Structure formats: structure tokens, C-alpha cells
Amino acid sequence: MTPEELKGLLLVSSIKIGVVFAVIMIGVIMIIWVERRGSALLQDRLGPNRVGPLGLLQNVADGLKNFTKEEVMPLQADPVIFVMAPMMSFVAAMLLFAVVPFAAPLPPFDVTLPLIGHVVHEGPVAMVIANLPVGFLFILAVSSIAVYGIVLAGWSSNSKYAFLGALRASAQMISYEIPLAMSLVVVLLLAGNVPLGDIIAFQQQTTWFVFAATLSWLLFHVATFAETNRMPFDLAEAEAELVAGFHTEYSSMKFAMFFIAEYTGLITMSALIATLFFGGWDIPFTTWDEQEATNWSFGTLFRVGMTNLFFIGKTFFFAWVYIWVRWTVPRFRFDQVMHLGWKILLPISLGYIVVMASAVLVLERLGMVHDWKYGMALFAVNVPLVALCVFGLDRDRLLLGARLRSQAET
Amino acid sequence: MLELVFWFFSAAAIVSAFLCITRRSAVASALWLVSTLFDLAAIFVLLDAQFIGVLQVLVYAGAIMVLFLFVIMLLDLGREGRTDMKGSVGQFVALALGVGLVVELWVLKRVMDAEGGFAAQTAAFQLPEGELARMTEAQGAIGIIAAPLFRQYLVPFEVTSVLLLVAVVGAVVLAKRRL
Lengths: 410, 179
Hints:
The structure holds two protein chains of two kinds.
Chain A: H1 3-42, H2 58-68, H3 79-95, E1 103-106, E2 109-113, E3 117-121, E4 125-127, H4 136-145, H5 147-156, H6 160-191, H7 196-205, H8 209-212, H9 214-227, H10 239-242, H11 252-277, H12 298-326, H13 334-365, H14 372-394, H15 399-409
Antiparallel strand pairs in A: 1-4, 2-3
Helix pairs in contact in A: 1-11, 1-12, 2-11, 3-5, 3-11, 5-6, 6-7, 6-9, 6-13, 9-11, 9-13, 11-12, 13-14
Chain B: H1 2-22, H2 26-46, H3 50-74, H4 88-114, H5 117-122, H6 131-152, H7 154-175
Helix pairs in contact in B: 1-2, 2-3
């Protein structure tokens, strides 16, 4: 690697890191606003609407308030770990986004800039911070260490409520990591490799994995609710039982860091669902977004901008789904959470791997090429499986139960 | 540059491992062990073994150590400086064993130097420079591990998994009085 290339790489990477960090931070403020206004919408009240237009600046005001508040540390707390825990949460949540591609690649460049000098980038500039060969395994690894922040926060505060929250968090995270990883095995089976760029390319070639691996998406989506500690699995906080769970003893900016980490996790998990199962930055029904970027023209830039908009749109939609579910479904009991994780999600995901592996083998033996028909053939395998899981597991309790009950009443 | 990174992580791994066995509090010990595992993962990545590195974090740091912490917290061993160090006799035995280990390493080093040094001894096991990076590029980080594991070594792999299953079933039988 020549010095010019190294400079190009460093320049591109630092710009990408800075932009992604800024966008996530602003996204967190926006998502919290959407959550507060959205919950108000779902509960038929107004929500914060006084600070700025539509209450948009409410969270800025709250952030400033958090800076000026007093920091309290419990007398018997472990001082080092107590301070370290919010940072661990925050850093792990931030790291997750590093491998998610957020737009079509930019063309290569060879320019001379003031101050920096001559910089070169050979090959298209991938719009992802780190294009790791281990791809989504990195995400599994980092999300598995995200629990340390919560567990250590609960333990170090030396408070029984925080401690119970920490115990619940560690048990829950370990349990739901397994269905999370197992549902991704099917994605690996289909795409044949783990980098998210390859997975997006395979989805562009065939169909989105929401069709080719529908059940995988359902399992993954449910497991991410538990991994991000969102309702209906926010047992680590459970304000009705544990005051505020693991962050009971935290105040001012330390509390705010947990808060930011939670919403960063929400954004990243939404982005991941969009990338793994909904084509990432792919624009559906078109192929013009998939051409290789070779020169700096308006068309290329427009394409990068459009793909990025589509990625943000998909991510925002799934973030809204998280909020929607949070304000719709009540919290599970802890034994129900464990039951769902170990006795329902895990066996389904294991069985699903077997079925999908056989389906992929059969399709390969039939000599099917990887185009949209391949994806639709797998979708045909998925439909009965999803129907079986949804109606078989539900047994008229939730989906049909509500309707039957309302019929019985009228 | 890469060498500098290697020395940094090796030093960090050794220091963390040392702190792990000398801390009084069980939680601090466990956290230093997590730090050691991270440093080892970084060294694996430096060796172009990204898959092993990420598994190190995913399995050891992310799952096993969380379980450790869970048990430590559940039994409330974290806070007071309880120690299971035996009295002066135990410390003497530990010292003697430690000295024995150092002497053993020294003898090994001498034998190796007599037979042409470390590089000559391990030449047969080493891949050519950059070979692993090229293979990762061609087959993907998972492919180069998965292909031999599921084709060439399928039977040993399956036997190992049965062994693990037996261990899990055994643990459940031992732990649960009524099944």
C-alpha cells in the first residue's frame, strides 16, 4: 500500500466514522422524540409539544438538563465499575454499526487536496465503516458483550432492585443470543458468506430474505427485542417491579448514556433487520442501483443518495415497529420469557435450519440458478412453515383469541 | 507497525492474566479474564484468523464469562475479599511448582536452541507468508474453516459434538433431582 492509498483510506474512514457517529446521535434524538410523540399518539394523548416546533427540541432540553444535574453515587457502590458500566454499554452499542453498509459504493478517486495532499482510493469506496470478512458474526460478538454494561451497572450499584435487574439481564441475554445466532445460520446457508455486503448482493440477485427466509426474520426480530431490552422483554428495567432496574442508582449523564445506548441499539438492530432481510440499501424492482460505480457523475451521486435514503427509510420503519410494539404489548413474566426463548424459539430455529438446508440442497440438485425464481421457490417452502408456527404456537390465544373473545361479547 | 500492535496486545494479555489471578474480588477477577480474552482475540486477528478471533469474543467473552458473572453474582462472592489461599505450606508448594515450571521452560529453550532454534523447528507447520489472507479472500473467513471441518473431519467433529451433548445431559441429570 502506497502512502497515497494509506492517506486515502484514513481520510475516507475518518469521514465515514464522523458522519455515522453524528447521524446516529441525531437519529437517537429523533427516535426518542418519535417514541414520546408516538406513544402519545397510541395512547390518545398529546405528548411533549411545547419546546420547539411539535416538541422537537424537547430532547435537546432534556439532554442539557441531564448535564446540569447532580451526579449521585451510592455509598457502598464499587466506584470504578460503577463509572465504567455506562461507558461499556455506550461503546458496545456504537461499535455495532461499524459493519452495516448504508448506501451503494462511491466511485474510486484520485485527487490532490489542500493540506492533505495527493490521496488515492483504488476500487469503489464501500459505504461501510469496516468491511470485515467476519461480517455479521462481529455483530453477534459485540451484541453479546453489550450485556456487560447492564450486568455490571446492576451489580456495582449495590442496590437490590438494580441487582435483580442485572441478574435478569444476564440470563435473558444469554438465552436470546442463541435463537438470534441460529436464525442467522439460515441466512448464511442461503448467501454462502457472512459479510453484509455479500448478503445484500445475494438479495439483489435473488429476492429479499424476508421471502427466502421468512421464519428466520420472525425469529430474529423477536430475539432482537430481547437483545435490546425492549418491551415486551424489558425485564431488566421493569419499572412496575424493580423501580428502574439496572439503572435505578444512576443519575444525570451516566443515566443518559444508558438511555442513548438503548436507542442506539434500537437503531442498529432496525438497520440490521433492514440489511439482513429487506435488502439493505437495495431499491426494490430496479437494477439501476446495482451498477458498479466507476466515474464521478451526477448519476452515480444520485444513486448513492437514493440508496442511502432507502436504507434510512427501511431502518426508520423498523425503529417505528419497535416503538409500536412497545406501546401495544404488555410485559412478559420472567419465566414466560425464558420459556419462549428455550422451549419455543430454540427448537423452531433448529428445525428450521434442517428444513432450509434440505430445501437449498434440493434446489441446487435441480440446478436452479440464483435469480428471483430461486427466492420464490424458497418462499413457497416458508409459507406453510410460518403458518404452522404462527397458528400452531398461538393455539387461539392471541391472534384468533382476541377475535373470538370479541365475537363472544357481541 | 503490526509488530507494535502484537507487542501491545501480548503485554495487555499478560498483565490482565496476572491481575486476574491476583485480585481478591471475584468480579474483578472475572473482568480481567474478559480483558485477557479480548487481547487474545486481537492476536488471532493479527494472525489473519478473524473467524477464531470473533468466536473467542462471541463464545468466551460474550457467553461463558457472562455465565461466570451470573453465578458469581448469584452466589454473592463478588464483594468481600474472601480467599481460598492455603496457609504457608500451600504457598510454599505453589512457589516450588512455579519455580519448576520456569526451569522446565528454560530446559525446553536450551533443547530448542541446540536443535537450530525456534524458526527451524516450526518451519514445517507454517503457511507461506500471506497464504491465509489469500485463502480468506477466495473462500471467505467461514469457508476456510467450514470446508475441512464438514468434509475432511466430519466424523471427529460429530463425535466431539456427541461428547458435548453427553456432558450437557450429565450436568442436567446431576443438577436436577427430579426429572
